[in-house]
Amino acid sequence: MARTAAAFQVKGLHMRAARYHGRGDIRIEELPEPEVRPGEVGIDVAWCGICGSDLHEYLEGPIFVPAPGHPHPLSGESAPITLGHEFSGVVYALGEGVDDIEVGQHVVVEPYIIRDDVDTGPRSRDYHVSADMGFIGLSGNGGGLGEKVSVKRRWVHPIDSAVPLDEAALLEPLSVGYHAVDRSGAKAGDFVLVGGAGPIGLLTAAVLKAKGATVAVTELSELRRQRALDTGVADHAFDPTQVDVVEEVKRLTGGRGADVAIEATSAQPVLDTLMNALRPTGVLQVVSIWSKPASVDLFQLVMKEIDVRGSIAYVNNHPDTIALVESGTIDLKPFITGKIGLDDIVDKGFETLIHHNETAVKILVSPSGKGL
């Protein structure tokens, strides 16, 4: 039987959350707990990751966050916004009409805000690029950097309790990698060059290895190159200041070149390298968020008939991604490099990822402090 939110809602209860007010301005504030409305699921947030898009907001924003006075058309909210879209948690309340999930169940969230008239069924391949699409934790509707959040049932994905909740928080960025690989068409036996061994580059490489591809990464940081090798997500790791990456790829592929290249840096030199390393009719898959225009060698694109594709977030990819982790095919534990509480989110979270990013992959935040 579905339980109404009213059965769980206690007026006057408050929680803490990290709120984005503007560029360089994140504050820990006290807010009322969310109301769990009909069709929604109340979630006690266990862990929330700090994403590259959160860093972009902090350094250059507002980008995805609606600026003050310009509310998001669906959430109706503008800054200040509760941040956090990479999170796991435990169900604490069920809104009226929700009867296929249980209180106490472990879940992750596909953090979309999408119009009610958009088809988000299992066969949809484009709801993630629908008009006015937004993200929980960037566009409003609460976020994973608050102690609690209420989310429409459609976007809540149960996970096996055998998957630790800290590792489960990485399922969202892993789904980004899964969608990028899906878009690229990479398959078993392909040689794939990944540009950048940051969080998305590493997790995309993990999906590629799970699918049977041979993976090489090009990365400036020695620590990141070594992590790619130590975690087993890369077969080869190149320092572009020491070797000619294009020649190394050709050597490893019998002169042919890479079948697929994944751009995960938003850096022009990396984009150029990937274009040069691709074989004729290869695929360049861009998964990074570029905050400035890039240049593309169109002569090479034409002469080699290269396909250039973009990917944003995910679309019906969570079930398959979750299955890879539940089956043990992908181990997410090695990618967790730090755990902090809300009060340390700027100094030990954002500042570390901005100024010492080679030492960290994914820093997780416990909004309640549990598990620290």
Can you give the mean pLDDT? 95
The quaternary state of the protein chains shown equals single chain
Given the helix and strand composition, which structural class is it?
A: alpha/beta
The third-level CATH topology of the largest domain is Quinone Oxidoreductase, Chain A, domain 1
Helix share, percent = 10-25%
Number of helices: 10
The H/E string reads EEEHEEEEEEEHHEHEHEHEHEHEHEHE
Family: Belongs to the zinc-containing alcohol dehydrogenase family.
Pfam families: ADH_N, ADH_zinc_N
Domain Enoyl reductase (ER): 22-342
GO molecular function, one term: oxidoreductase activity
How are the SSEs placed, and which strands pair?
Elements (H helix, E strand, L loop, with lengths): L13 E9 L2 E8 L7 E10 L2 H9 L20 E2 L3 E9 L11 E4 L2 E2 L20 E2 L12 E5 L3 E3 L6 H4 L2 H14 L6 E5 L3 H12 L3 E5 L3 H9 L5 E3 L6 H8 L5 E6 L4 H10 E9 L11 H6 L3 E4 L7 H9 L9 E6 L3 H11 L6 E5 L6
Parallel strand pairs: 11-12, 11-14, 12-13, 14-15, 15-16, 17-18
Antiparallel strand pairs: 1-2, 1-4, 3-5, 3-9, 3-18, 5-6, 6-10, 7-8
Helix pairs in contact: 3-4, 3-9, 6-7
Protein name: (R,R)-butanediol dehydrogenase/meso-butanediol dehydrogenase/diacetyl reductase
Keywords: Metal-binding, Oxidoreductase, Zinc
InterPro entries: ADH-like_C, ADH-like_N, ADH_Zn_CS, ER, GroES-like_sf, NAD(P)-bd_dom_sf
Q: Can you characterise this structure?
A:
The chain is of the alpha/beta class and 372 residues long. The radius of gyration is 21 Å and the shape is globular. It has two domains: 201 residues, Medium-chain alcohol dehydrogenases, catalytic domain (Quinone Oxidoreductase, Chain A, domain 1), CATH 3.90.180; 135 residues, Rossmann fold. Belongs to the zinc-containing alcohol dehydrogenase family.
